[in-house]
Fold these 3 entries.
Entry 1:
Amino acid sequence: MPNNLEMLRHNVKRVNLNISGHERILKTLRPMDVRVIVDLADAKKGEAVYFFDKNNIAVPRTIKVLRIDPAGVKVVLDESASKTVPVKAHISGVPEDGYRIKAIEVKPSSVEVEGARAEVNRISLLRTEQIDITGLDAGMTQDVRLNLNGKNIRTKTPEVTVKISVERTFR
């Protein structure tokens, strides 16, 4: 795939093959021994269908491919893009009785995200994985992964440091 393009989506998760070959080889064949290869070297931005043929299937040389289902894959490619977005800590729970959160500091406070332009444009901020502060009665510092679930993006900064300060409340 050209360097300036990103896979936005595709419609095939699995390809079913009918194959033939020596019984001994077939019995030991694992899914990881078979690969379906789609050459996107000349791909362009937008939607396209790429059809499979026996040349797209990498199998041990004594195996013969009889049938491929589905016959192809529809892919949507978009321009690559990146931008810097703020990071917010995802806090759950409440501190110990008599305490409250004084401050939450995230370092770095922003990270660069990369991916398909349509995906990157939809991101306005990233959240961390959940941090449970139930019963917290002293400050804490924790390295926390960024939550990229459901987002088709990458970041060179997989985790941030979150510092939570608490203070005693007086009644």
Note: Residues 80-168 form a domain with the RNA Polymerase Alpha Subunit; Chain A, domain 2 fold (CATH 2.170.120.40).
Entry 2:
Amino acid sequence: MKKILLLIFISITAFGQDIAQLRKEFIAANQSSKASVAFLESTAKLSDKALHQAYKGAAMVIHAKFAKGVEEKKKWAKQGISLLEEAVKKDAKNIEIRTIRLSIQEQSPKVLKYKEKVEEDREFVSIEVAHLPNGPLKTFVEGYLNQK
């Protein structure tokens, strides 16, 4: 029984560290091509869980910003948006997923036409952040909202 509890604790701790690292890389990825590639590589082998999919999609869209050529940019952006939207469909009430989508939409160029849910996401995130307990997720969400 102790071994099972230890295994569960280790799994939960590892998942939390994994997400904390993804948050840091997500924030840094917009700063340089090198950081976007590092973030893309970090997300490549993540599971199909909704939150992981959201980060994978975000990594692809951010990578598109640094890709060479219009077609390459479109390819990465399209794949990323598709994954991000799939993540939202899987878990529409997840504030972290909605924050990620909000960030990507607000930063996406008009030519992508990926801004239709900005107001909906901003309202959802702004309301739901008040219900989060103090901790890394609340800090992440408030950090994004306060930068605007």
Note: Residues 1-17 have pLDDT under 50 and may be disordered.
Entry 3:
Amino acid sequence: MRPFIVVLCLCLGLVHSREPMRTKRAVDPDAFRNISELITSKGYPAEEHTVVTRDGYILSMSRIPFGIKNQGNSVMKPVVFLQHGFLGDGSQWVTNLANNSLGFILADANHDVWIGNTRGNILSRSHQHLSVDQDEFWAFSFDEMAKFDLPAMIHYILEKTGQQQLYYVGHSQGTTIAFIAFSTMPELAQKIKMFFALAPVTRLDHAKTPAVRLFVLPERLLRFIFGKREFLPQNWLVQRISSTVCGLGAVSTL
């Protein structure tokens, strides 16, 4: 009942807004930029890298080798690896202004910043043998992300930088796969100088959100409701709709 009331209040707020719904505001150009464009638009250098996991997934990674405040500094910098959360991608670390995005802040603090993307997100939708249109492509969970994705990205970063260890910063799901990987692969954990867990997730025992109740439903029913492939896909259509709705004057007042 409570979610329905919240949605109803939001709708009433839109209807009675002093600014007409048809009034549009300029759409932020960042809404249509990829991660490299987000980085370079703020004046920072960007590199694109790809990593292939042992089970064939092709992952996209981004690098900010130095910041605006330390350009041309050839001294070996501490390496920081940023890993996004659930239903996210690496752009979440560089979406805000430079003084409010961790990726840029760390680059300006003289760190070599690497940004990862796990299998299946909008930036890592390729496989050596499978297509995103095949059910087999989506037959994974955070267990596979921990077992295959994280080691592949960490080993690649250390090989490229010539360093023995790196700092790991994970958010939400990024902490979950790290807890799994570092606890089951001690040799991988030894390559982590320090692990920073932002909004860490290890268990759902005390979650009170109504969405958790869905998990008690039979798996066959859940697959019928949500499908067996991508959940809440991020594509050009969703991007276009969200940018249009968020550009409405009434929405911007919320």
Note: The longest strand covers residues 57-64.
